[in-house]
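A protein record pairs a chain with a discrete description of its three-dimensional fold. The following entry can be read in just this way:
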Amino acid sequence: MLPDLSPFMALRRHLAIAHHVPGRIRVKLAAAALARLPDVDPEPFIALTKRIQGVNAIRVNVASLSVVIEYDVRQIAAPVWERLLAGDTAEIEAILRDHIGRTA
């Protein structure tokens, strides 16, 4: 079962890929978003990411407003991350259905 995507969808428009090499991606929150979203909670993004099969580690850097995600490139193709941040809801749901709980 997919989680409620509305918290992620609200936050993701403020996220951008700051650096990406296969197996490691850094996603950054726009500083301007803090003015519009004073109570930004990264937890929905983190919780959703933790459920993706192939994610090995997640590190949050509050000072730089970024999250580093280490992942297994054999389980998650690099373009998947771009689609999670830019795709429409149907595309994101399809990606998550394919990557969440495959072994559960």
Summary: DSSP finds five helices and four strands in the chain. Residues 89-99 form the longest helix (11 residues).
